[in-house]
Amino acid sequence: MTELIVNERKYKIDVPSHETLLKTLRDRLGMTGTKCGCDTGSCGACTVLIDGEPTLSCLLLTVRCADRRIMTIEGLASGATLHPLQQAAIEVGAVQCGYCTPGWLLSAKALLDRNASPTREEVRQAISGHLCRCTGYQKVEECIMAVAQRRMESG
Amino acid sequence: MIMSLPPFDLARPRTVAEACALLADADTEAIAGGTQLLSAMKNRTRAPRRLVDLASISGLDSIDYRATRGLTIGARVTLAHLAAHPDVLRHYVVISEAARLVATPQIQSMATIAGNLCQDTCCLYVDRALEQRDALGPCLKLDGDICHVVPGSDHCWANYASDLAPVLIALGATVTIATTAGEQQHDLQTIFSGEGEQPIALGRGELITAIQIPPPAPHSGAAYLKLRRRGSLEYPLLGVAAAVTGTKMIVVLTGVDRGPVIVEGTSIEDLARSASRRVHPVKNAFGYGPNYRVRVIKPLVTRAVRTAIARAEVQCD
Q1: SS3 of residue B96 by DSSP
Q2: Same domain flag for A93 and A147
């Protein structure tokens, strides 16, 4: 049995050693917000936070994630209240097809958690592991900069 | 589409000695970050029957700096941890810079320093999807008998493309290699076989447990420059590490041969000329062709050495 902590909830599951966290999240726990893009570590669609760090769930064995804090896109909003990054993504139009969105939102959260006022270059660096097949990078940058700006203004 | 991993046993040793004993078996590989290994297993270019999980061994994930002894990096330290460490930023900024040029931020937070050094060689043929490889037939790297990149070659031309290895060699790094009989230190460059098929010369049952870098000498500086098509994800098509101590200069190239290429000299011109003569890149990577990769060796070596010299001068002040 493997004990996983996903979005602050504990799950006890029985998985084979060769199952990836991506498959476990989507197929066993029904959390399909985490997307499967290339499935070999290049595109960033499967990004989740592990102990606060952006990590690729397609290249992680589930059994090696026991007792670590996993956060998926399902855990970003607080109940019905969207996270400021999600709200800003809607406002600036940073979502096109939506496939890369869950991944970069989590990378952006990790960035703002450790650096409340990033430069544009630091934002670009933080999302450099996410491929947007719609090439909508500009709006993603704007979204993250807008949240950082608002946080600074509200102190 | 979710790609399946082939089934394997996962052993979880508690000590280095137990891990070494397990690694002495055939078809067994160590897993630390797993970023390159698991992609290769999904792509069916590697198929170990058993993986030995290094995460269950304590004491391999720390960074320690002493002014007298230098830097000791545990084998399982992640590239993100290494790049952000205050002692690394203060005394070995080039290591932090190189670590931040590896792949993507997500991979940096998973991949480990020893995994990066022990990475397999890559080639546009081997890294293709299984169906495309099948259509051409197995090459030398995959236990076949031909090379699709250099037809007629009797050996594999796959590229060794670690960003950290050239930097650490230039800084004079050593590695601690453990076996069931104990531990020994070796110069980092001795772990490279120079062969595309099996670039790492570690024997069965041998495991790197730590990397040591001497304290920075007075009047020393180092730099690393990386050529790739875009500013993210990709392996270097040419990487140049330069380290300068007083009048002593060393340049180490990556991404253009089957292992790191070490060039020593006493002047920038001398180093640039020797470096461009030493390597003969072949058409084994997407992006820039061999002619361009050769042509940029001189300017990149020149720029890297100049940056290293400038840093050495700043350090004197």
Answers
A1: helix
A2: yes
Residue B229 · residue B237 · CB < 8 Å: yes
Model confidence pLDDT, tens digit, residues B180-189: 999 999 999 9
Same domain, A65 and A92: no
**With a cut of 0.85, is the ipTM above it?**
yes
pTM recorded for the entire structure: 0.97
Quote the domain boundaries for residue A51. Answer: 2-75
Structurally, how many domains does chain A consist of? Answer: 2
Q: Judge if A65 and A106 occupy the same domain.
A: no
Pair (A71, A6) in one structural domain? yes
| Cα B161 off chain centre by | 6
Q: Which of A26, A39, A129 sits opposite B105 (nearest CB)?
A: A129
Instruction: Based on the fold, state whether residues A63 and A97 are members of the same structural domain.
Output: no
Give me the residue from B4, B10, B231 closest to A17, CB to CB. Answer: B10
How many whole angstroms separate alpha carbon A11 and alpha carbon A69?
A: 12
3-state secondary structure B236-284: CCEEEEEEEECCEEEEEEECCCCCCEEEEECCHHHHHHHHHHHCCCCCC
Q: Kindly report the number of other CB atoms within 10 A of residue B62's CB atom.
A: 13
CATH number of the domain bearing residue A65? 3.10.20.30
Question: Distance between alpha carbon A34 and the CA centroid of its chain, in Å?
Answer: 8
Give B8→chain A minimum CA distance, Å: 7
Closest-CA residue to B156 (of B113, B114, B199): B199
> Is the pLDDT reported for residue B2 higher than 80?
no
**Tell me, what's the pLDDT at B254?**
98
Residues B263-274 have pLDDT tens digits of 999 999 999 999
Closest-CA residue of chain A to B106: A55
Q: What are phi and psi of B156, to 5 degrees?
A: -85, 140
Q: What angle do CA B3, B6, B11 make, to 5 degrees?
A: 125
